[in-house]
UniProtKB/TrEMBL annotation:
Entry keyword Acyltransferase: no
Species: Roseivirga echinicomitans
Protein name: Glycosyltransferase
Molecular function, one GO term: transferase activity
SUPFAM superfamilies: Nucleotide-diphospho-sugar transferases
Gene3D superfamilies, per database record: Spore Coat Polysaccharide Biosynthesis Protein SpsA, Chain A
Residue ranges constituting the Glycosyltransferase 2-like domain according to the UniProt record: 5-168
Domain of life: Bacteria
Pfam family, one: Glycos_transf_2
Length: 326
């Protein structure tokens, strides 16, 4: 019977930890423990954790701030499980998550795995719209957690599991921010380990709760994608560059108003069609026109934020040295 150790790095998010731990108390498969790694927070969640001691096998660890990658390593080093499972603190875990993972591993052994993310029915329209933009086929989110993902599946650390052997051989995260999970997944694959997507092992990911915070997060993601390419040249695929192409395309389209009315009208028509497709698809998927309208802003925020992040990191005068500590 597999034993899982859940490792959750936390920074100033006690309320989120409370909701996450509550969802873990409802699991139908209970052969797991939980390690909360408080990464130098000023708003600690120690009292929250204490309130769950009678319901979960859980330990609370406090350390100086070093970022999520190294905080996960800190938890891995102290974990007892056969598999180490990583969740972001803003996730809610369906009650059959570990049961689905365990059943999948019975017939398809994997050294490292990941799952999709979805919007919980209780999420606000804005949260649902942001979730849609991160998973939609009309945005780059469509390549995450999809059965039709291109190439070898790269687990992402909002919902990720690795075997003990993977950690012992790779030594975990090599960088702590700026694409740390992508860099880690690449090394796991290059070490010869088998990775895969478990489609039914999804989590409800709350993400950011405002467009300004969402933009900042995606801008950081865009920078991270360029940073990973410094470690592994060639890992930046054409599909990853689409947000940057989108941003450049918007700029070029806007400039056509000064020299070509026809090109400006054609570009406007294509943009209108794209916008309408997002609205219709999201409205049907979420059964809400309000979410559909918000999804337009979410998709544009995602694409421009990610694209501008990529462009700014490419233009930044930092040579070829990868970002690792800050």
């Amino acid at each position: 019977m597999r034993f899982f150790s859940v490792v959750i790095p936390v920074f100033n998010r006690p309320d989120e930890v409370d909701e996450l731990l509550k969802s873990l108390t409802l699991q139908t498969y209970t052969n797991f423990d939980v390690i909360i790694v408080e990464d130098g927070s000023t708003e600690k969640c120690d009292q929250i954790v204490e309130s769950y001691l009678s319901q979960l096998s859980i330990q609370y660890l406090f350390k100086e701030n070093s970022g999520q990658g190294f905080s996960r390593n800190y938890g891995f080093e102290r974990a007892k499980g056969d598999y180490f499972v990583v969740f972001d603190s803003d996730c809610l875990i369906p009650e059959d998550y570990f049961e689905k993972v365990n059943q999948f591993l019975d017939h398809t052994p994997l050294d490292a795995f990941g799952g999709p993310d979805k919007a919980h029915p209780s999420f606000s329209p804005l949260q649902k719209a942001i979730s849609y933009s991160m998973t939609s086929p009309f945005t780059t989110g469509g390549i995450r957690g999809s059965k039709n993902h291109a190439g070898t599946f790269h687990p992402r650390s909002f919902n990720m599991g690795i075997s003990r052997e993977v950690f012992e051989k790779t030594k975990g995260y090599k960088i702590t921010r700026m694409g740390e999970d992508i860099e880690f997944s690449i090394r796991v694959i290059e070490a010869g380990f088998k990775t895969g997507l478990i489609p039914d092992a999804f989590v409800y990911h709350k993400r950011r709760t405002s467009f300004s915070h969402f933009y900042k997060q995606l801008h950081f993601f865009g920078r991270a994608r360029i940073n990973v390419n410094r470690f592994f040249p060639g890992e930046l695929k054409a599909i990853h560059a689409l947000p940057a192409v989108f941003v450049v395309g918007l700029f070029v389209w806007l400039t056509t108003i000064f020299y070509s009315t026809i090109l400006f009208a054609l570009g406007g028509a294509l943009l209108t069609l794209f916008t309408f497709a997002i609205f219709v698809h999201s409205s049907i998927l979420n059964k809400s026109m309000d979410v559909g309208i918000l999804s337009i802003s979410a998709a544009f925020t995602q694409l421009t934020g990610y694209g501008m992040g990529m462009i700014s990191e490419v233009l930044k005068p930092r040579g070829n040295q990868p970002f690792s500590q800050k």
